[in-house]
Amino acid sequence: MPIGPTAGYFSYGAGAELVAGIDGIMPIVSPRIAIGYDYVPLATLGSVSLLRAGAGLGIPIRLPPFLQLTPYVLGGYTYGFLSDGSGQGGGPFVKGGLELSAALGSIMNLGLDASYRWDINAWGGFGLSLFSGVRLPLRQSADGQKAIKGVELLADQFAAVFPAQFKLYDTQPFGAFTLHNLESSPLTDVTIDFYVNSYMDNPTRLLSLARLDPGARQDVAIRALFSEQVLKITEATKVSAKVTVGFVFNGQPYSRDFTEIIRINNRNNITWDDTRKAATFVTPNDPLVLTLGKNAIAVTSDVPSGQIDKWLIAAMSMHEALRVKGLRYSTNPNTPFSDVLHNASVVDSVLFPQEELSYGAGNCSDLTVLYCSLLESVGAHTAFITTPGHIYAAVQLDVPPDGIGRAFARPQDLIIEDGKTWLPVEVTMCSDPFVDAWRTGAEEWREFQPQGKTEFLPVETSWQIYEPVGQIPALATTIKLPEQPALAAAYTTSLKQFVDQELAPRVSQAQKEISTRKGDPKPLNALGVIYAEFGRMALATAQFEAAAKTGVYVPSLINLGNIRYLARDFRGALDLYKKATSADPKSSLAILGIARCEAGLELFNEARAQFAILQAVNPGLASQFAYLGDQGTSQTRAASADERSAMALWDEEAHQ
């Protein structure tokens, strides 16, 4: 449709144009070339024919799911001639237009074009045309794939990686991005893999998608199965990560690689928005931790401790081992723990137990992690306790909550959580006696727990989310153990302090009973049991013998037998137990004592016979010593008996 000053010379005409465009070789715009022919009738007789060729740029704008809008401009040269041969000539032209096309499958499209063309110094006019197009690959990539736009990654966000939590990132995302299909046709069999060289053994599959529609976007969470190599990172670093997107387009498989930069913090870094993260640093299977923990138990086990809770003994042993080894508490003036606890924005550091043992000093979190690791290495259950700006440890005891009043002179120094009894230890007092560290930990709990300012987090529960790392690259292959005489002496002193604290009120009350009930064997026997339960066997023996002198008193005979049994004098114990059954044939504790002594003497048939009597007299007690009725080999029964030879049931009543 001609317009402008020369429009009167021309009438409506028609034409054809062939356009070739190349997508994907320039950002945003696509270059194009065009050749065309126009037939334009003249207002007078005749017509003019126009041949033209030009080049320009288009801006393809995708309108999902299948439309595309493309504004464009062209410039070139037009040559025309009159139909009667009376004239010809040429000149430049410019053209601008807007195309709207719709995809018909993966190759064909159909569209409408509206344009304006100005043949300079000749004429100008609007044009409206219907067109169809074919998408053809004009080149291939270096790997032989057809050159297509494919996909792009948008809005990529990566949080820093903390090596100590490397096991977590396989399930918990640390970043995200959006996958965008740039094609006008769907992509199928879409996969995305994530890989960091040197710190992953294999790529992690992030996405498997059957179909991604034209122009569609898919949010992708970033996960990674890192290897233990990240534990070698002692300074924060930036590394390249490769994101590989695979897909099928028009039946042809494609692959696109993208490079992302992620930050990996050093292996000791942590944020304290979740205190349970500290559990990753608790490494009970570290060989150096195992060596120190088991050595401490071995050295202190030679010191008699009566029937004090074994995990209290273990807690005391580990505390004294660290004290003798010279561990010290130190603070970090740059990031005090009070500034980082429950603060997600501050990156703090925690030493692994191996590092703490090497350096010899640490803050409250370092010492807590080490202490829990040592106790867990020998089978104890531990917990983290936090108060405002502070963290310390607790160990679970075997004593049930309803038994602490009898077992401890100061039950208020224990913590009851989830139906279990826990002993708190102020780990920063590693240079002080165990009893003082225990009492201080209890005082801190009593001060802040009523205010709701404490956390109590069992390590094993925390491990369900934050698994222990296992072992960092060894700083050393051996550890200098505490001198055995020094450790035994320190432990003995600490044990005596605890026992004296526990005995004082009990002994005082028992002696009052003895003074008011002269000639009565019961208070004498009761005092003997008190001494025996805390390992004071010489004092216990004196009281049991004093009770026995008042006449035939079965509990004192049983208890004297127990002392012989614990000393592995099975024949001497057997004689005392038999005297007790002579006086009271139904004394279940005496019958049990006989069976245990006979098992210790490898008289297995006799032991089994006594166990049958015990089952008839006291089935409940018999069930606790089922090994005595074991029908296996004599070696098995001997091993079971030996395993239980250190346990005694003290008789405080006249009849059991």
Averaging pLDDT over every residue, what do you get? 89
Radius of gyration from CA coordinates:
44 Å
Residue share in helix:
25-40%
Count of DSSP helices? 17
Q: What is the general shape?
A: rod-shaped
Share of β-strand residues: 25-35%
Poorly predicted residue ranges: 138-144, 634-645
Q: How many structurally independent domains?
A: 4
Write a concise keyword list for the protein shown above.
alpha+beta, 5-stranded antiparallel beta sheet, 9-stranded antiparallel beta sheet, 656 residues, single chain, Porin, Immunoglobulin-like
Overview of the structural elements:
This protein is 31% helix and 29% strand. With 656 residues, the chain is of the alpha+beta class. Residues 138-144 and 634-645 have low confidence and may be disordered. The protein contains 17 helices and 25 strands.
Short précis:
The chain is of the alpha+beta class and 656 residues long.
Describe the secondary-structure layout:
Elements lengths: L1 E2 L10 E8 L8 E12 L5 E12 L2 E3 L3 E16 L5 E17 L3 E12 L3 E12 L16 E8 L16 E7 L5 E9 L8 E9 L4 E6 L14 E13 L2 E13 L4 E2 L16 H14 L9 H16 L2 E2 L7 H4 L7 E2 L3 H7 L1 E2 L1 H14 L4 E6 L2 E7 L7 H4 L7 E3 L2 E6 L8 H15 L6 E4 H5 L20 H33 L4 H13 L3 H12 L5 H13 L3 H14 L4 H13 L3 H14 L1 H5 L10 H10 L13
Parallel strand pairs: 18-20
Antiparallel strand pairs: 1-9, 2-3, 3-4, 4-6, 5-6, 6-7, 7-8, 8-9, 10-11, 11-14, 12-13, 12-15, 15-16, 17-19, 21-22, 21-25, 22-24, 23-24
Helix pairs in contact: 1-2, 1-5, 2-9, 4-5, 9-10, 10-11, 10-12, 11-12, 12-13, 12-14, 13-14, 14-15
